[in-house]
Automatic annotation (TrEMBL):
GO molecular function: DNA binding
Major subcellular location class: cytoplasm
Localization per Swiss-Prot or TrEMBL: Cytoplasm, Nucleoid
Function noted in UniProt: Binds to DNA and alters its conformation. May be involved in regulation of gene expression, nucleoid organization and DNA protection.
Organism listed in the record: Spirosoma terrae
Subunit structure: Homodimer.
Keywords: Cytoplasm, DNA-binding
Protein's name according to its UniProt entry: Nucleoid-associated protein GK108_03860
Length: 112
């Protein structure tokens, strides 16, 4: 196997460039998490920003405040977990084929 260090550095520059573009594109990657059988829905993007919270009108009662807060937290956590997977796939696809499959090479640090 002929290993050329300059080619490898060039590939790394290309990976970094593609990764930066992909990370900037994470704002359009969205995921929604639900709790309470869909009574609370939270939508987040790949930058881990909460975009929207939807609450069924039946839940908006002063005496149910703690339950509502718990449902919002649960829906938000589900959305964040789901978008993490989607964001990793988005970044993986953006850099696919740029580097050879090198055992032990882990680019997760580049993925935020």
């Amino acid at each position: 196997m002929n290993f050329n260090m300059m080619d490898m550095f060039g590939k790394m520059k290309e990976v970094q460039s593609r990764m930066k573009e992909a990370q900037e594109g994470l704002g359009v990657v969205t995921e929604t998490g639900e709790s309470g059988a869909g009574l609370v829905k939270v939508t987040v993007n790949g930058l881990k920003n909460v975009l929207k919270i939807e609450i069924d009108a039946d839940l908006i009662k002063p005496d149910d405040k703690e339950m509502l807060q718990d449902l919002i937290v649960a829906a938000t956590n589900k959305a964040m977990a789901n978008v993490e997977t989607k964001a990793r796939e988005h970044l993986r696809q953006a850099t696919e084929g740029l580097l050879p499959n090198i055992p032990g090479l882990n680019l997760d640090g580049l993925m935020g």
